[in-house]
Protein backbone atom coordinates (compact mmCIF):
# COMPACT_ATOMS: atom_id res chain seq x y z
CA UNK A 1 0.00 0.00 0.00
CA UNK A 2 2.84 2.34 0.86
CA UNK A 3 4.39 1.59 -2.53
CA UNK A 4 1.18 2.51 -4.36
CA UNK A 5 0.86 5.71 -2.35
CA UNK A 6 4.49 6.58 -3.13
CA UNK A 7 3.94 5.98 -6.86
CA UNK A 8 0.73 8.06 -6.89
CA UNK A 9 2.45 10.83 -4.92
CA UNK A 10 5.46 10.76 -7.29
CA UNK A 11 3.17 10.92 -10.33
CA UNK A 12 1.19 13.72 -8.76
CA UNK A 13 4.32 15.75 -8.10
CA UNK A 14 5.76 15.04 -11.54
CA UNK A 15 2.59 15.87 -13.43
CA UNK A 16 2.47 19.59 -12.60
CA UNK A 17 6.12 19.99 -13.66
CA UNK A 18 5.49 18.09 -16.87
CA UNK A 19 2.25 19.97 -17.45
CA UNK A 20 3.99 23.30 -16.86
CA UNK A 21 6.74 22.43 -19.35
CA UNK A 22 4.14 21.38 -21.92
CA UNK A 23 2.18 24.58 -21.28
CA UNK A 24 5.30 26.72 -21.72
CA UNK A 25 6.11 24.97 -25.01
CA UNK A 26 2.50 25.35 -26.10
CA UNK A 27 2.53 29.01 -25.05
CA UNK A 28 5.58 29.71 -27.17
CA UNK A 29 4.04 28.01 -30.18
CA UNK A 30 0.83 29.96 -29.59
CA UNK A 31 2.88 33.17 -29.60
CA UNK A 32 4.51 32.07 -32.85
CA UNK A 33 1.13 31.23 -34.35
CA UNK A 34 -0.26 34.60 -33.26
CA UNK A 35 2.69 36.44 -34.82
CA UNK A 36 2.26 34.47 -38.05
CA UNK A 37 -1.44 35.32 -38.19
CA UNK A 38 -0.70 38.98 -37.48
CA UNK A 39 1.90 39.25 -40.24
CA UNK A 40 -0.24 37.29 -42.71
CA UNK A 41 -3.10 39.71 -42.08
CA UNK A 42 -0.79 42.69 -42.41
CA UNK A 43 0.59 41.33 -45.70
CA UNK A 44 -2.92 40.82 -47.07
CA UNK A 45 -3.94 44.35 -46.05
CA UNK A 46 -0.81 45.90 -47.60
CA UNK A 47 -0.91 43.92 -50.86
CA UNK A 48 -3.09 46.41 -52.84
CA UNK A 49 -0.99 49.39 -51.72
CA UNK A 50 2.25 47.61 -52.61
CA UNK A 51 0.92 46.67 -56.04
CA UNK A 52 -0.09 50.29 -56.64
CA UNK A 53 3.36 51.48 -55.52
CA UNK A 54 4.99 48.98 -57.86
CA UNK A 55 2.90 50.29 -60.77
CA UNK A 56 3.81 53.87 -59.89
CA UNK A 57 7.50 52.96 -59.80
CA UNK A 58 7.22 51.35 -63.25
CA UNK A 59 5.47 54.45 -64.63
CA UNK A 60 7.96 56.90 -63.13
CA UNK A 61 11.11 54.86 -63.83
CA UNK A 62 11.97 56.50 -67.18
CA UNK A 63 11.39 60.03 -65.83
CA UNK A 64 13.54 59.35 -62.76
CA UNK A 65 16.37 57.96 -64.92
CA UNK A 66 16.21 61.04 -67.14
CA UNK A 67 16.24 63.32 -64.09
CA UNK A 68 19.30 61.56 -62.68
CA UNK A 69 21.09 61.72 -66.05
CA UNK A 70 20.47 65.46 -66.31
CA UNK A 71 20.76 66.51 -62.67
CA UNK A 72 23.17 63.87 -61.35
CA UNK A 73 26.40 65.74 -62.15
CA UNK A 74 25.03 69.02 -60.77
CA UNK A 75 23.86 67.32 -57.57
CA UNK A 76 27.23 65.61 -57.15
CA UNK A 77 28.96 68.99 -57.52
CA UNK A 78 26.58 70.55 -54.98
CA UNK A 79 27.18 67.74 -52.48
CA UNK A 80 30.91 68.32 -52.86
CA UNK A 81 30.41 71.92 -51.74
CA UNK A 82 28.24 71.11 -48.73
CA UNK A 83 30.26 70.18 -45.68
CA UNK A 84 27.49 68.87 -43.39
CA UNK A 85 23.74 69.01 -44.02
CA UNK A 86 23.08 69.84 -40.36
CA UNK A 87 24.83 73.20 -40.92
CA UNK A 88 22.01 74.34 -43.23
CA UNK A 89 18.44 75.44 -42.69
CA UNK A 90 15.37 74.52 -44.73
CA UNK A 91 15.23 75.77 -48.33
CA UNK A 92 13.54 79.12 -48.94
CA UNK A 93 11.76 79.87 -52.24
CA UNK A 94 11.99 83.53 -53.23
CA UNK A 95 9.19 85.32 -55.14
CA UNK A 96 11.25 85.14 -58.35
CA UNK A 97 11.53 81.34 -58.03
CA UNK A 98 15.11 81.19 -56.79
CA UNK A 99 15.74 78.65 -54.06
CA UNK A 100 18.11 79.53 -51.23
CA UNK A 101 19.50 77.04 -48.74
CA UNK A 102 20.70 79.25 -45.88
CA UNK A 103 23.65 78.30 -43.72
CA UNK A 104 22.83 78.35 -40.01
CA UNK A 105 24.38 81.26 -38.10
CA UNK A 106 26.04 78.95 -35.56
CA UNK A 107 27.61 76.71 -38.25
CA UNK A 108 31.43 76.58 -38.37
CA UNK A 109 33.17 78.79 -40.92
CA UNK A 110 33.21 77.32 -44.40
CA UNK A 111 36.53 77.37 -46.30
CA UNK A 112 35.64 77.67 -50.02
CA UNK A 113 39.19 77.82 -51.43
CA UNK A 114 38.41 80.25 -54.20
CA UNK A 115 35.92 82.70 -55.62
CA UNK A 116 32.19 82.53 -55.07
CA UNK A 117 29.96 82.65 -58.17
CA UNK A 118 26.86 84.77 -57.73
| Biggest sheet features | 2 strands, antiparallel
End-to-end gap = 106 Å
Output the number of helix runs. Answer: 1
Question: In total, how many beta strands?
Answer: 2
Summarize the helix and strand pattern as letters: HEE
Q: What overall form do the CA principal axes indicate?
A: elongated
**Category by helix and strand content:** mainly alpha
Rg (CA only): 33 Å
Helix content: 55-70%
Physical arrangement of strands within the biggest beta sheet:
1-2
Please tell me the overall pLDDT. Answer: 76
Q: List the uncertain runs.
A: none
Strand percentage lies at under 5%
Folded structure, characterized:
The protein has 118 residues and is mainly alpha-helical. The protein has a domain of 65 residues. Helix content is 68%, strand content 3%. The chain is built from 1 helix and 2 strands. It has a two-stranded antiparallel ribbon. Strand 1 and strand 2 form a beta hairpin. 0% of the residues are buried.
Features:
two-stranded antiparallel sheet; 68% helix; mainly alpha; single chain; 118 residues
Short note summarizing the structure:
With 118 residues, the chain is mainly alpha-helical. 68% of the residues lie in helices and 3% in strands. The chain is built from one helix and two strands; from the N terminus they run H-E-E.
How are the elements arranged and paired?
Layout: H1 2-81, E1 92-93, E2 99-100
